[in-house]
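seq as requested:
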Amino acid sequence: MDLTVTTLAERPELVDPMWQMLDTWPEFMLHDPVGWNVGRIATELPEFALVGTDEEGTIVARALCVPFVLDIKGRDPETLPATGWDQALLWAFSDLRHGRTPDSVCAVEITVATDRQGQGLSGMMLAAMRENAGSRGFTELLAPVRPSAKDREPHTAMEEYARRVRDEDGLPYDPWLRVHVRAGGVIDSVAPASMTVTGSVGQWREWTGLPFDTDGPVVVPGALSPVHCEATRGYGVYVEPNVWVRHRI
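struct tokens:
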């Protein structure tokens, strides 16, 4: 399809339609307490919010990034944070508040509309994200990647899963990791606590439709690892691992 990609800085009128685009994110993923910062990207960092529209002008994809300072006291440019996605958002808006000049840019989200998946749009948006970062003077795009097929193996360690490759071409086994590597990305490390979602057992029942009435691990559709349920204490905790990928630009 003929995809047009623009930033919200160029087309601010697309902010509301972008958020109204239907997607397939699991409900529980929307309750990471750090995640509310994602909404700030559209208004405070619109040059890092990309929107993909089709020939009719319909929004079919979005890609969000945040810039931050990686080479600064307390942060290590050679060792990416174990708290991945959450840490990237916290650093970005802390640096913005303090007026620091960013030296790195990090992918936060690439989302394709529910009815447009399987058409290669995620790869196109990744390419646009890389191009946008390069045009703004960055030499590297960092990405705490959420492997798209990992939810089928919630008990497999992410380190093992991330390093698994196909026999026929040596590319990653996971489809989304494969897109990143084909685009020039290099798998760097695992972020074992990239996102954290906590809630009462009542909330987890609402989010997932599962009983959450037994202590121990609970496999939840869409989760990359089991949710730890403390039914007798009334809460559940989900800690999601992601995979850091470095894209040289």
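The helical segments are 15-20, 38-44, 84-98, 121-135, 158-162, 175-182, 201-208.
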